[in-house]
Write the C-alpha cells for this entry.
Amino acid sequence: MRIEVNDTAAIIIDYQEKLIPAMNEKRELLENSRTLIQGLNVLEVPMTVTQQYTKGLGGTPDCLMEAAGLTEYKEKISFSAMDVIREEIQGRKFVILCGIEAHICVLQTLIDLKAEGYIPVLVEDCISSRTEHNKRMAVERAKQEGAVVTTYEALLFELLKEAGTETSKKIQRLIK
C-alpha cells in the first residue's frame, strides 16, 4: 500500500519548549522533524500543530512553525489529539504522526486514528520520549495497532514518487 500525497495529512504533536529539553536525543529529533515538516510543506501536505497545556509547557519552537508555514496551533487537554484534529484530517486516508512524547500523546492519537478508520503513519525518527525504552515500546505498540512505521526520508520520497521535477529537487536539497 503506497502512501499517496493527496490522501495524506500530518499532525505535529506537542513539540513544546518545556518538554523538548527532557527528550532523549533531542537534537536529532528537532533536526529530523524540521526536515520532515519542511518536506511536507514543499509537498503541500496539510499539517496541524497541537500543543498540550500551552500555558505551562510553552509553545512550539519557531523553527518548526516556520518549517510548516503555520502560525496557529490547536490547543488540547486530552493526551490524544483526535478531538482537535478531526476536522483537519477529514477526507484523508493516511495521517502522518510526529512529535512527543511517543508513548503518551503520539501513541494515544495513533490508537484513536486507527479506531476511526485512518491509517496512521508513524515517523520513527521524528518521535521521542524521555527514555529510549518508552519510545521503543511506543513503536512496538504502534506496530501491534497496525500503523505504518517509517522514517522521514523514506516517507518524503514515497510521497514524492518521482525524480526530475522541481518538487523533487527541493526535497533532495532538504535531505542532503
